[in-house]
Amino acid sequence: MRQVFRRVLDKKGKILVMEIPAPGCGRDQVLVASRYTVISVGTEGATLGKTFPELAKQTLRDPWMRSAVKNLIFGASPETIKNIVWDEMTQMRVIGYSGSGVILETGENVSGIQKGDRVAFAAQGHAEIVAPSSNLTVPIPDTVSFQDAAFVTVGGIAMQGVRRAEIQLGERVAVIGLGLVGQLVCQLVNAAGGHVIGVDVDPKRLDELGAIIPHAGKVDAGCSNTVQTVLSMTGGFGADAVIVCAASKDPSIANQAMKMSRKQGRVVFVGIVKMDLERMPFFRNELDLRFSRAYGPGSYDADYESGRTYYPQHYVRWTEQRNLSEFIRLLQEGRVRVQPMIGGIFSIEEAQKAYDKLSDGSLPGTSALLEYEAGNEATRRRTISIPLTSRIREGRINIGLIGCGNFTRSTHLPNLHKNEAFQISAIASATGSSAASVVSRYGVGRSTTDYHDILSDPEIDAVLIATRHHTHGPIACEALNAGKHVLVEKPAVLNWEQYNELERTLLETDRVYMVGYNRRYAPVAVELKKCIKDDLGLIVQYQVCVPEIPPDHWTLNPTEGGGRLIGEAEHFFDFINFLAGGSPTRVTARCIIQESETIYSQFNFMVDLEYENRALGTVTYTSYAAVGCSRETIIVYQGQKTMTIDGFKKLMIRGDIKKTHRSPFADMGHRAELDYFAASIKEGSNMQPVNLLAASRTSLRAMDSLKAEKKGS
Question: What is the average pLDDT score of the chain?
Fold first, then answer.
């Protein structure tokens, strides 16, 4: 299928139409053949207009991202930094967010809609086939056209802004910024019984508003007396509500919104404007300042937007989906009109032309539509062959990658490409878009959205699994049963059910299985292991100092990520197992849970490990450490010696001998891990499942310990 992308390194406004494999249909998803998608001159134009320096500046405004970038610069090698930056600059970016089409397939958990139904969808790009979740899909009545319904997401955004303003009959509402969203906000305010006052610097947009709502007030924001004009139109009292739909770096817009509001009025920000606010308008008028986020409750909730959970109407009246559905109803009743805002209709091949015309102002209206052919089932191909830029190399292990996230693109792909033992034969990604920028760069012969295509290929010897955590165990079992050697990123499993199934599969198959515990292959780890004596007692303290990540990050989701203990701590348990030469016989965990946290979202825990061979280990994982502390520090005590690994850059040995092994950059063992995987495949692996899964078993026992502690408290 064809999809529209943008790239950071391309010229301003540059987009590409690429052929990628069609997405699959998950159990909570709907597969839709697009008929129309909307191009917004405001939202998408602003995105295309951003240069790489602007995007970098925007990223660094986030404190967590600043910390991550700082750690990268001071801890990673120049080559690693180059790979990450290059990936960021060349990665294809999906663009587009609103459309309509016909259902091709529904997931097993989807009800109320079926194959052949006409639907509108949100949060999907400009593509011939899309796979929105059921919560972001709404039916289209026969009396509403595909063209009109394609505006559903923009309508949902506008509707949520109006809901946040709590408009009542007869209220005067000023709408600043009459782009696509602003025009729809005006129509919704009018439908709600409010008196509209449109404010914009573009006379053409004011005229367009007048054509849709003849009795609306119109104010030229380019004049010096904008605020006074609005006050005059409201009898000197000011607007009951002001809804800001503009997108600008001009701080005067937000302050004008305050000044044109009545006392105890509401000011709602839908668009993105600079918030350099004056205090006195707030103080004098006792204003309510509100923000509108996307298109309703459910926005940025991964469980809701993926379709895994549902907000009951009794408790959440207007969710994202209900806002979308209500917008379609208003279209059906003719209370909202979108046709006057359509500047042109283009085929997907003409996407660049559409963007160019919108950006240079040569199109009327505030949007354009991309049109897609009906009934083209050939676009449903989930696997496509890519013209190779490098030849197939004989005698190498053909490996397929399942998952193409940031870490795979910045670390695994460059390392595999340089490793003489491997040939990258295929990449599977959920949507196909994340792999779009790398398949040709690394000479990959095939891109697919169905990882079963890789598992069923007899020419592929091994797979590297780097999907989201909850899929690691099931996909590994499938791969082993398909006769593939497996290297899977941690965690190996998320729960005991997955653990038991994986253990059974390992007993029944003879393929090499490895989890990506790369730290044991790091140069300083190898040197440290040489110093460990098997017949002496051993104490290991593994300290991990981390900044907290946003609470809505997918790794903290119990369903997808499992939390930090399950999702990340396996690394540290494996490392202590590696030094102790065995599996712990006793695992005890403790944590500090704040009032708003759960055992999955907390960042501060300690896990004590006891071994039969007189070894003790402790993992301390905390977000309480001072800024600047090494992320990972391992201190080992044995036989009057103290051995310390600092950030995987330095190993210090103190005791009867004093040695220091130092590297200017951290080497976490990722390359050596691949070498070991290749050697295991060629030489065969005799490790038993009980040893292969020792770290997973440890993390699950630690989680059980935390649950027991919480239950007991």
Answer: 89
